[in-house]
Amino acid sequence: MTTRTTQTVIRFSSPFLLPGFDALQPAGEYRVDYDEELIDGVSRLAWRRVGAFIHLPAISMQLPTQQMAPINPADLDAALEKDNESS
Predict the structure, then answer these.
(1) Sign of the dihedral through C-alpha 77, 78, 79, 85
(2) Is 54:16 a contact under the CB 8 Å cutoff?
(3) Could you point out which of 12, 13, 43, 69 has its C-alpha 20 to 30 Å from the C-alpha of 84?
(4) Tens of pLDDT, residues 34-87
(5) Alpha helices, DSSP H only, in the chain?
(6) How far is CA 5 from the centre of its chain?
(7) What is the pTM of this model?
């Protein structure tokens, strides 16, 4: 199975909480890595998301330590949708 990782930047305009997080994360821009695998048997290239990691803290915060936390892509999509509705 062929896999790849893509990176994107997402933006929250309000503080947010994802399942499994202990505390609210501040509004801001965050790097997210998506792990994807190639779907076999289709007539063109297609990728399926199988995992995601968010880089903490936000890009604008200049802290000496950073971490990558695993997240469910569906939970992230729901949090972004909620954030867009409230802004």
Answers:
(1) positive
(2) no
(3) 69
(4) 999 998 876 788 899 999 999 999 998 888 889 999 999 999 999 999 999 986
(5) 73-86
(6) 12
(7) 0.87
Q: In what order do the strands lie in the sheet with 28-38?
A: 3-12, 28-38, 47-56, 67-71
CA distance 81 to 83: 5
DSSP conformation letters of 15-40: -B--TT-SSPBPSEEEEEEEEEEEPT
Sequence length of the chain is 87
* Amino acid letter, 25: Q
Residue type for 16, please? F
